[in-house]
Amino acid sequence: MLLLLVACQAGCQRAHTVDDTDCKPVFYRSNYITMWDVPYGDHQRQVMDIHLRGSWATSDGGFNVRLEGPQPPTIVFAHGSAWYLSDKREWEHVITPFLQRGYNVVNLNYRLREGIEPAVMDVRDALEYLAINNNRFGLDLDNVVLSGVSAGGHMTMFIACAQNSGEPSISIPPGMGISGVVSIVGGGAGCYELYEMLRDHEESFWRDVADTLVDDHERAEELMERYCPIHQFDDGDPPMFIAYGRRDPFGSDSKYAEVVRGLEDAGISYQLIGYENSGHNLVQEDWEDAFMRIFRFVDLHAGRQSIIVD
Predict the structure, then answer these.
(1) Distance (Å, whole) CA 70 – CA 122
(2) CATH architecture of 28-190+228-301
(3) What average pLDDT does range 257-277 have in this prediction?
């Protein structure tokens, strides 16, 4: 049974007023060894948490012991919130199912409010750091799944598709193989239209977001489309799992239909699901359904059945 809530969240913390049966404990596939806030650059936002799967047993001193031998797939996750706010720790409810499944997970931060381009470069730099320093982490970098929600899903789709671009600044670093992409409400087409929607939005928050997406508003269309995933699609790109809410004001059915046409024209394998009752965030039951599909997707394209135990 998939449990998406971390044990002892708010309901459990108020156990004296809330029935304990409301608490859903999380059981991971194994122990984990976590390296918190590993820097991959000099900016305070250029840090990531690296969750390394441990063995079933602990050391004599009760400490977690790293899993030896073949490793499970590596999930690299980039959070959402419009390139404007949030932090990786606020998205641990999303990476928890990956940990339950037994994958190695990298949960990263990137620069905010400096435009899409610096954020994309940060995700790419984080991948390069992992590739260069993998003797420290022992990750399976031949089976990496790039994943993200909203802005994070947009960027990971872009980077996965730009790996064949021939541009070193956005290409996947040597020594890393992208086996798949998981993008939740990440869009992928009509990027300048999104900018226009935010720029003209009735709520000042979204207008503020638009102000930070590019550093030169005279060149907004050029810059937004440059980092729009659909323009990087080609037949060498990895398979994609894409989920969205059909009530999402920022990602209509027609936009995802445009993404699908681009994927099919390029011959890219994909799975697309639109959830009727969800908007720009999936409701709980849709998250649960999506993760069961994601697990099958990851295990099909990147999994090692001897490592991932049902």
Answers:
(1) 28
(2) 3-Layer(aba) Sandwich (3.40)
(3) 98
